[in-house]
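Issue 218. Parser rejects a valid record. Input:
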Amino acid sequence: MTRSFEIRPDLDEGIDRKVLSQLRNRFLTLNEGRLARANEGLSTRQQSVLALLPLFFHVNHPLLPGYVSGATPAGVSHYEPDAQALAEAQRLTRSFSYKPRRGNPPQPIHGIFLMGSLGTLAQADQSDMDVWICHDTHLSPEDVLELRKKCQALETWAATMGAEAHFFLIDPERFVVGERDAQLSGEDCGTTQHYLLLDEFYRTAIWLAGRTPIWWLVPVYEETRYAEYTHTLLSKRFIREDEVLDLGNMSRIPPGEFIGAGLWQLFKGIESPYKSVLKLLLTEVYASEHPQVQCLSMRFKQQVFANNVDLDELDPYMMVYRRIEEYLRDRGEPERLELVRRSLYLKVNKKLTGLPRQRTTSWQRLLLERLAKEWKWDERQLALLDSRSQWKVRQVSSERRALVSELNYSYRFLTQFARTQNAISSINKRDLNVLGRRLYAAFERKAGKVEFVNPGISPDLAEDTLTLVQSPNKREPGKYQWGLYNGNLGAHEWETFAPIKRSRELLELLAWCHRNNVIDSSTRLALHPGTSDLTEFELFNLQGALQHSIPTPLGMVHEDVLLKPSVPSEILLLVNVGVDPLKHHKDLNILMTTERTDSLSYAGVRENLVLTFDQITLNSWNEVLVSRFDGPHALLDCLTELLNNVPETSPKPVIRVRCFCHNRAPAIAQRVEELINTAQLLLARNLNHRYLIQVQYHYHVLEMTPGQVSHVAIDNLTALYQYLGEELPTYSPIHLDPQALDDNDLSLIIPHGQPECIQVFYRINEPQADLYVLDEHNALWHQRLPYHDESSLMMPLQRFLQSLMYRRGALLPLDNPLEPSSLDTLYYRITPDGAGRARRIEQRLAPVMPTDKPFYDVQAIVEEASPGQVSVTLYCDGMEFSELEFGEQLYSVVARQILDQRSEPQRYRCYITDLDLSGILGDTRGQTILFLRYKAELERSLNEAMDEA
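Output the parser choked on:
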């Protein structure tokens, strides 16, 4: 274009109407060029839509598209349709004829403008039309509603013409004060962006019809006096009021708008980063200049005033790029600048490699070629970018690093800017928190998390053919790793290739492939299982289980969910992946037939078939996490972590258990599922349950405190009795797994436990008997005694328990109705007698004490002599024997005393009939198990002394 003088209108020196007319014509000339470029990229039918829009708002004719009713406001300021528009209208409706409106009819439509990428470097076949309809502020709500209906009808009609159009009703007076169409503010992340939207309008909008913006006529150096300047233009009639519309000025942008714009672009950038990079960088440029922001609309206006109206350099995308380029060069950040260039090139999406599709080279391609030459891009780089639709994991992973780094940098910049400007409102503080969590969930690396490598970079990462290999880990002797390779590689071919990805565990690798869609239904997978037992059948089923549990692509997480900590929503447990639990039997050619089919204690050798767990979790933030459990306690470690991670409140996660190993897979999965379901039910009761499970000859207890589930491993039956005999702060029921302790008396005793009572069980196996007590907190005491008859077996224990209840009752205040003065004692006999398997428990009446037969009273008082040391005093029929007097000979002296009092010649056991522990317990009541434990220890010492006497 020819260059002419710069226009500098000045209020003080007087304003020439001719100069103002020249200015307006410069904007209109530029506008004409942009409109021509927009039409160049449209189909014939789409061009018709653009040409007809002003006519449809100018006349209200029932034969034309968009007609609602005769009451719909119509009339565009200073508009008269040209021959092209009338011809297009008659092609649509032959019977339509235009009659110019006579007199001075109302013209409520003040201006029609086209926004968006049409007419810009980034215009594409799928670009939509965003149309602003600026209307008279005095229209009634009913009139506005009529117009809105017309807009909706025109959107529908445009779609039939192959055009996606969106109409926004703008009341200029309301717009100036920040009030605007709800649809228009729907894309700004909840934080107002009035001035940034206006900035975009002034530098990108294409005028279609009606009045022109008065902003065009205000010099940049007068922007701070905008109100005064425009008032002068209108009041002194330099321009007519009905020729212009006023949407406001760009003298100041509040800092909160940069935060809102950055939030929204970051939000969109998580899924479509290339589209957001340019706008994010522009927001950063603006914010870095605050409060003296040199926004692009002002640069645009300055260039028009200077008559630098080069269509290429004033293209909206070129202006954005040039501004960012200038900023990043000043900062010395070439890597970020290269990312911006790639983003612009991919946004424009006009491939420079290969022959152009059209015979004539488009202006966009010519401009892009000029830029690529300026950037010194070679054919190789262009070919790489042009093949983006074929990019696979390696290239996508490299690009992801740059994009994620940029998004994270923008978030940190935005947060810091908000702090330094003290511009964090309660709204955008919440938005910042949500966005930070969105970025964390999408991109943050952490142990066990499956990385998502393709945030809108390539349309498809699926590979045609892959090879999956297990091989020794050279860095860790004795360990193995899994590798994924391109192509169908033979038995040692893969050693000369670099894998796409390595992982220690198979499921970590398969979950990564699934999350990133590297393997799809058409991928052919070659398998080299190495030392594992993995088969193609199992591999196929593992992939199916992943697809069923974690359907991809994952949707957008609602912000209310992100404001809460993440919780599991889907859990997939895979048992024995690549492991055959009975492989050694197959190798030895042993066929196992057995009635013992429990997967935790299989066959006569009680084989554990549940060996490894791979847990894949999809949480509420759409993070996919993988964890592995193996080793001797894999089952219990997995259950413990699983139960601790399940939220206490609803909704609970869906838990699926799958097993595809070579032997007994369905039974294994069902067994694990039963354990999980039972544990969840126990946990939900919130009663501090203990869940007792047997694995082979070992025992495991899950202590079910909500949020603090813990696992206790117990090696053998002796250690189990010791565990069950420990004191407890409150009643703790035990749930016994049906397959545990199946040949032990405990399998019948444990399910009988009840709170707030003492339960005594006995089983006779002559010449001995087993005595069991479950106390008020469900602690178990066990003792094996010589058996003579039921009375001699039970009476000493009954006397002791009665003495204990008497002592407890004496310590309680009389007016405390909440605390029972004594606990009921219930008696049960386990049958049948003998050493065989117990079958039943029968309740018995309490033994009756004979009144005609006196008993020998042995009382014990245990006190704390010094820290960690106790002192015992025994009373035999009221006679005192203390350690102070007899020292280590106490039990020998008391044993002789008891024997001297007996008239029968045969030896029989001595029992403690009463025990006082107040010297140890103080004012606390003390659990029954503690008294029974001291009783047993004292009786052991006494009876050993009697045997030696």
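Fixed in the parser; the record now loads. Confidence is low (pLDDT under 50) at residues 184-191.
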